[in-house]
Amino acid sequence: MAIAGWRVNQPKITGANLWGKAKTVMQIIAIALLIAPLPPDWQFPTLLIFWFALALTLVSGLIYVSDR
Q: How far, rounded to the nearest angstrom, does the alpha carbon of residue 8 sit from its chain's CA centroid?
């Protein structure tokens, strides 16, 4: 929400970069694994993917803001 509000006030319009696309893919995978009825053996790998998606989200956001 903060990025969307900030983006409205920016005159420069740009498309999504590779980081944003990778972030979206990792978020989709992480959410799918979190809601899937998986056996307990999948709990730790799912958690790792979730945290990786979070880190990628932060990196993508920082790159997005720094490019403006």
A: 20
- Per the listing, tokens 């053996």 go with 41
The per-residue pLDDT string of the chain (68 residues; one tens digit each, 9 = 90 and over) reads 666 665 666 666 667 789 889 999 999 999 999 999 999 999 999 999 999 999 999 999 898 888 77
| Cβ proximity of 52 and 29 under 8 Å | no
DSSP sequence for 4-65: HHHHHT-S------HHHHHHHHHHHHHHHHHHS---GGGHHHHHHHHHHHHHHHHHHHHHHH
CA 46, CA 37: separation in Å to the nearest integer?
Answer: 12
Q: Which among 13, 22, 10 is positioned nearest to 52, based on CA atoms?
A: 22
Cα 36 from Cα 28, distance rounded (Å):
12
